[in-house]
Amino acid sequence: MAFDLQGWMQPHLLQIEQALTEWVDPKAPAGLGEAMRYAVLDGGKRLRPLLVLATAEATGAHTLDAALRAACALELIHAYSLVHDDMPCMDNDVLRRGKPTVHVQFGQAQALLAGDALQALSFELLTPQDGSVPPAVQATCVGLLARASGYWGMAGGQAIDLASVGERLTEAQLRQMHRLKTGALLLCSVQMGVACGDAVSDSIRLAFERFGEVLGLAFQVVDDILDVTADSTTLGKTAGKDAAADKPTYVALMGLQAAQRYADQLTQEAMQALGDTGLPPERLAALQGLASMVVNRNR
Amino acid sequence: MAFDLQGWMQPHLLQIEQALTEWVDPKAPAGLGEAMRYAVLDGGKRLRPLLVLATAEATGAHTLDAALRAACALELIHAYSLVHDDMPCMDNDVLRRGKPTVHVQFGQAQALLAGDALQALSFELLTPQDGSVPPAVQATCVGLLARASGYWGMAGGQAIDLASVGERLTEAQLRQMHRLKTGALLLCSVQMGVACGDAVSDSIRLAFERFGEVLGLAFQVVDDILDVTADSTTLGKTAGKDAAADKPTYVALMGLQAAQRYADQLTQEAMQALGDTGLPPERLAALQGLASMVVNRNR
User: Fold this and answer.
1) For the ranges A142-151, A170-179, B115-124, B211-220, which has the lowest average pLDDT?
2) What is the topology classification, in CATH, of domain B5-296?
3) Contact at 8 Å (CB) between B198 and B227?
């Protein structure tokens, strides 16, 4: 019987939404909590947090307290990066998830602060002081997330992106940019899932990491494809933006059809990496489903 | 014999500068490392890192590896907050530590990213993966710093500051704003010093925390005084800015002379709190010296 991905996702999405709703305090000073909740709640695909939970479960973990914190921490980092990326000095975007962007709604200064505070809150979530997560797991998750979101991760990838508008990048350069800009956080999702799950061997961990890396690349190729094939309403953000800004993309580099074939090939590699963990197929079904969803999504 | 504060500070400042120079990678992608180093190296008073080291030493600690990481992590958070605070959508300041601000030098987009990456790097420094800092100390320090810099700390204080331009605040409201905006990080310096030092009793820890709180308040009162009494060249930033922006300050609230008396009174309270630790006076001399320096500084 085919795996029911929607049936798996529904309770996990509910858990994530409830946790985010509880953990982003609406009463934070001077409207800051309100702006942060606007940026985080209601509307994201929650791909990264779902990957954390699915990976932790794949290792055999039954208790997901630590993984739920890691999942939400990742989503806060993702959300802060969108808030800052949308600001006038960056992409100057006014539409996100079908709503006005944070700086349009709350002003630029509040958007800047909300992004900053979301990053801090992410590390706060990873370090509960109630004894619910062992200190070693806390330290590992913080280390993974700080590196994945910093200058040799997401922020570094954004800097390359900024510097490369109008430049002609080679495929290797484009891959390096995306490996940092979007790939690092997706890989980190899988790594944190492993860190929060039951102990696994090094070879299983490495197979999961290979899965996370390839999935990150596939995600970006599909993103580039959607930028030219989807409309803004479906995307919930401005379509055709990269092409208009003359940004280097996989579609610009290799053409639409080749990019689609490349995405399919990467999906196969991701499935292979999952198989290489040697874990029982039923434990891997949710991760397989999420990987398919990444490639077949329409927004 | 009087304590030689300069003699104490010199090797500690050297340690801090060397560590920051080593730990902020100049080769980070697309000029990001360069912008981050510009924001961090060469010019800060390093008050927060000195407080971390002095507190750890006061507990009797001889090994300062963990404290040096905590010290630099705090300085990176402080530096990122200045970069973002100076941006046009916030204070729109062009001069900092006698140099053009980061966005003037590198552009707004790079300044935004550099601030974001400095925050991430701060948590990276706290979580070394070489076994040099016990996981429990890592987790404690991350928890303290994330909370001190987040929406119920520095970022929340900045949001109140933004919202209160042109407003008439009571002394209680003003105190709350500063307790978050600048006080939280100064208190955190002392708390992280305790966490990285030798184990102390709860009563000693609480006395240190009282010291950190009062010092934070004194720091801000003096900041407000300097805004009206010092010139821009001495300050290394634009003087008279708060008054010009009609920002609430202690000077605006109580007048210059009363503010100066208040700063003196807070200094006495800070010294009292140090005495309450019951630690040998020679161990407290550096912290006493730093507290005096905070109040008697001219920039």
Assistant:
1) A170-179
2) Farnesyl Diphosphate Synthase (1.10.600)
3) no
Q: Which residues pair with B99 in a beta bridge?
A: B96
Summary mean pLDDT of chain B: 93
| Residue B142: partners with Cβ closer than 8 Å, 6 or more residues away | A123, A126, A127, A138, A139, A142, B123, B126, B127
Q: HSE-up of B228 (CA within 13 Å, CB side)?
A: 19
pLDDT in tens, A138-189: 999 999 999 999 999 999 999 999 998 888 888 888 889 999 999 999 999 9
- Tell me the shortest Cα–Cα distance from A244 to chain B, in angstroms: 19
Angstrom CA distances, A190 to A20, A219, A291, B135, stand at: 19, 14, 12, 21
Structure-block tokens of residue A196: 């929060």
Q: Does B199 touch chain A (CB under 8 A)?
A: no
Instruction: List, for residues B35-57, the tens digit of each pLDDT value.
Output: 999 999 977 899 999 999 999 99
pLDDT, residue A181, reads 94
pLDDT of residue A44: 86
CB atoms within 10 A of CB B216: 25
Contacts with A, B 157-186, CB within 8 Å = 157-160, 162-164, 180
Chain segment B94-114, per-residue pLDDT in tens? 999 889 999 999 999 999 999
Mean pLDDT computed over every residue of chain A: 93
Residue A94: exposure state from Cβ atoms within 10 A (0-12, 13-18, ≥19): middle
Determine contact, residues B216/B179, Cβ cutoff 8 Å: yes
pLDDT of residue B237: 66
Query: The whole model's pTM is what?
Result: 0.95
Where in chain B are the domains? 5-296
* Helix, strand, or coil (residue A124): helix
Question: For residue range B229-287, what is the model confidence (pLDDT) as tens digits?
Answer: 987 666 666 667 776 677 788 998 899 999 999 999 999 999 999 999 999 999 999 99
Q: Where would I find the beta strands (DSSP E) of chain A?
A: 95-96, 99-100
Amino acid at the residue A243: A
Which residues, other chains included, contact B183 with Cβ-Cβ below 8 Å and sequence gap of 6+?
B157, B213, B216, B217, B219, B220
A124-133 exposure pattern, b = at least 16 Cβ within 10 A, e = fewer? bbbbeeeeeb
Show the CA angle centred on residue B252, arms to residues B247 and B255, nearest 5°: 165
Closest residue in B to A163 (Cα–Cα)? B30
Question: Which residues of chain A make contact with B138, given a CB cutoff of 8 A?
Answer: 135, 138-139, 142-143
Tokens 């639409």 belong to which residue?
Answer: A256
Distances (CA, A) of A276 to A193, A204, A280, A281, B173: 17, 8, 11, 11, 59
Longest dimension (CA), chain B: 52
**Cβ atoms of B41 and B181 closer than 8 Å:** no
A71 Cα to chain B: minimum distance (Å): 17
Q: How far apart are CA B224 and CA B229, in angstroms?
A: 9
